[in-house]
């Protein structure tokens, strides 16, 4: 489809659900999506949202990917 982002999960009433093709996003839902940095703006526009920087981030696990992610976030400040 050419999209470079995907809805990964939806948090509804405190419960996290893995998003599937049939998942409906309802008012009040929190949407977690993954995107290439340069393409996140497209996802926000389609959802009628404005980007808000994360205030806190938690990374679980000690894998190479987790370490690289932590290092990248620390570098960005």
Q: Work out the helicity level.
A: 25-40%
> Per DSSP, what share of the residues sits in E-state strands of 2 or more residues?
15-25%
How many beta-strand runs?
3
Which whole number gives the mean pLDDT?
Answer: 86
Q: Major sheet, described briefly?
A: 3 strands, antiparallel
What is the CATH architecture term?
Answer: 2-Layer Sandwich
Write down the CATH topology. Answer: Alpha-Beta Plaits
Q: Total domains, how many?
A: 1
Regarding CATH, which class? Alpha Beta
Radius of gyration, in Å, reads 14 Å
SSE series: EEEHH
State the strand order across the main sheet: 2-1-3
Number of helices: 2
Shape: globular
Uncertain segments of ≥5 residues (pLDDT<50)?
none
Q: How far is the N terminus from the C terminus? A: 34 Å
- Structural class, by secondary structure, is alpha+beta
Q: What's the gist of this structure?
A:
The chain has helices at residues 40-47, 64-76, and strands at 5-12, 15-18, 30-35. The chain is of the alpha+beta class. The protein has a single domain (5-76), classed as Alpha-Beta Plaits.
